[in-house]
Amino acid sequence: MPLLSDVARAAGVSKATASRALSGAEGVSPATRERVERIAAELGFRASGAARRLATGKTRTIGVLTPSVDRWYFGSVLHGIAHAADIHEHDVLLYDLGAFGHGGHEKFERFMRRGEVDGLITITWSLVGGDLSRLAELGIPVATVGEPTPHTRSFSLDDDAAGTQAAEHLVALGHTDLLHIASETEVQPFDASSSDRRKRAFEAVSARHGLRMRPVRTVPTSLEGAHAVARELLDRPDRPTGIVAGTDEVALGVVLAAHQLRIRVPEELSVIGVDDVPAATAFGLTTIRQDPAQHGEDVVDWIMAALAEPRGAEPDRSHTAYAPELVVRSSTAPPA
Amino acid sequence: MPLLSDVARAAGVSKATASRALSGAEGVSPATRERVERIAAELGFRASGAARRLATGKTRTIGVLTPSVDRWYFGSVLHGIAHAADIHEHDVLLYDLGAFGHGGHEKFERFMRRGEVDGLITITWSLVGGDLSRLAELGIPVATVGEPTPHTRSFSLDDDAAGTQAAEHLVALGHTDLLHIASETEVQPFDASSSDRRKRAFEAVSARHGLRMRPVRTVPTSLEGAHAVARELLDRPDRPTGIVAGTDEVALGVVLAAHQLRIRVPEELSVIGVDDVPAATAFGLTTIRQDPAQHGEDVVDWIMAALAEPRGAEPDRSHTAYAPELVVRSSTAPPA
DNA sequence: CTGAAAGCGCTTACAG
DNA sequence: CTGAAAGCGCTTACAG
């Protein structure tokens, strides 16, 4: 593995000049720059990241704290992050905290002890407010994707609008007897979660239109969890004509249960979700679309911009709310 | 941020001794060690990773090259990797290559240029043989999970056994007219892919039992892809009595299509998959289980062991095949 | 058991 | 435009 000094010697310049030529710094004659670059390429020179880090104080790495990587939302955000980070020539260091109470906090502490990154992204639900504010004091740009938070810059779907759109869609079709199935929030104080925002929006729509008020059901955030509850719920004579699910996973569990119970969707039951997961198409699920990969790209772009700003500037803690988009498929129709 | 020299001064020892005390090296009196540790804790000392890297040549980081993070298999492997890496106090650097031909190769090259890791894991399908052998020459432990490969140490489900078990299960139930739906392999030479191994195993079982020979169908690796094909396939009068799907995603697409076509599963159609994804339970899918998170943990353990070995030892390129496990649910039954 | 010193491989004021 | 030198913050032979 050739060193910078090898390149410098072969090019007949000092290490300083070689370094400048390679880094693209100005104040190097075009001729030397070209020569150094050529020789570096010939020798297959790669600057030592460790040395560069030590000298510059920059890691060219961004950290991601996430409670999960094997669920659609988190995976998609991560995908967007990785893509954008790559474009900015930054690496991504992954901290999979796992479920809270299952060692997640311990892993968080380990990150605080060892993590060396220029910027940090937390994908929501992984952290309680106290931890989030500790991160905000790290002196590096920190942002959250998935939920609004007062502690850091944040990006998320406009959950109020999403919940409203979903309920209004069914109301517009003529439904008056709706049930909301919310998906469980594990960590956040419930009243701050996207789940709760969607729920409240549903309740507001119900109240506004004078719909029958059924108590909201809460299920584990998974197709299985929703499915188990839906099997029991849909098998009753007084089932609603429409279900507004907090997420597509929940909605899919409901549709599956309906299929198994031979309840026709949408003729006998309308179902709407939020997310637009890939499987939604095959299920014909009407849903409110969001694009987590885009959120991931945006949060990285913000971090890069924050990194470019002069140190000590007042930290930006604003929130970006993405507008939801109704996607009508075949799981919703006027009530029979 | 306190430095090692601050700790040393406060403890009244040299930096050398402070370093030894903190790193747990031997040859430090218990008294000094304890004092140094206490003072380091009081001061909130965290050693600079960059400086340590430069001095030791170790990054305490392992790299993961994956074609995707938002699909169950990859996400689960990654989860296992992150967990095990954390236990070994190593960081994980994520390279999401994305689909091949969509900039994946370019991202791979960028990794080759900048990636500084002590060990490397590639999750299959992301790399062609040529790239894999370049990695193997990197001088660090390299392993692949998801498919056997001659270029590196590898870990994967025993696909032959999985394919055999799936087909034999339906044969044992009395089926004689089966169709295999394989899931598409994007990158690997097809004859090396797990998809192809499962397919061949299916064909061998068919031949052995003299079953009707239907040409194998290949569909995109997704519920949607399988669903589209299955809708058309199942709507014909001469449909098979059982379907052996290459993966659960494909199997789920088939079951969904059956539901929509009002074909009863398992009465009119048996379906079996491979994976045991979380949604399999709700669908009642009979499947062949594998545990990718475990594979991820194992591969990290192997990397750690390889790291502990003396440099220059002959690289281990053996393969670990995990035994499949049949999980019978309600999607399979004797033919009508 | 402990310390002084060299070294890891870059970058960047400072001079010229 | 270029170079000599200091410095980033640790670890680790080498001496004692």
UniProtKB/TrEMBL annotation, chains A, B:
User: Origin, by domain of life?
Assistant: Bacteria
Q: Name one Pfam family in it.
A: LacI
Q: Where is the HTH lacI-type domain?
A: 2-56
The molecular function terms of the Gene Ontology recorded here are: DNA-binding transcription factor activity; transcription cis-regulatory region binding
Which stretches does the entry tag as region Disordered?
311-336
Keywords for this protein:
DNA-binding, Transcription, Transcription regulation
Give the CDD domains listed for this entry. HTH_LacI (cd01392), PBP1_LacI_sugar_binding-like (cd06267)
**Does the record carry DNA-binding as a key word?**
yes
**KW DNA-binding (keyword) present:** yes
Recorded hits in PANTHER family, A to Z, give:
HTH-TYPE TRANSCRIPTIONAL REGULATOR GALS, LACI-RELATED TRANSCRIPTIONAL REPRESSOR
According to UniProt, the name of this protein is DNA-binding transcriptional regulator, LacI/PurR family
Gene source species: Agrococcus carbonis
